[in-house]
Amino acid sequence: MNRHVNDRAFLSSDPHEDEKITAEGMMKFLEDLNLDPESRIVLILAWKFKAATQCEFTREEFVNGMTDVGYVSSATVLCETRWE
């Protein structure tokens, strides 16, 4: 797993889970990014991150997904999604 990705967003999004972001954590993550959960960018992120379960990311999916699309932090996601 690529640890160059700043996964602080992963860790802070769901304090009850160490290895995945649950639906509750996803809502917090999207809220922090000011993204509408129903927007198409959220579906694209889930697809790009290869999420196996709807509304959840494992740590591996999150970190590998961020790396694969070239994001190093949640701020990068925020900047890249402003086009929507």
Can you give a write-up of this model?
- This protein has 84 residues and is mainly α.
- The chain has one domain: EF-hand (Recoverin, domain 1), CATH 1.10.238.
- The protein has helices at 8-13, 23-32, 40-48, 59-69, 74-80, and strands at residues 20-21, 57-58.
- The protein has a two-stranded antiparallel ribbon.
- The termini are far apart.
Summary keywords:
single chain; 84 residues; mainly alpha; Recoverin, domain 1; two-stranded antiparallel ribbon; 5 helices; 2 strands; 51% helix; globular
| Total separate domains | 1
Largest sheet: 2 strands, antiparallel
Second rung of CATH, namely the architecture: Orthogonal Bundle
CATH-wise, what's the superfamily? EF-hand
Question: Could you report the average pLDDT, rounded to the nearest whole number?
Answer: 76
Write the layout of secondary structure elements.
Layout: H1 8-13, E1 20-21, H2 23-32, H3 40-48, E2 57-58, H4 59-69, H5 74-80
Antiparallel strand pairs: 1-2
Question: What's the short story on this structure?
Answer:
By secondary structure, this protein is mostly helical. Helices cover 51% and strands 5% of the residues. It has one domain (8-80): EF-hand (Recoverin, domain 1, Orthogonal Bundle), CATH 1.10.238.
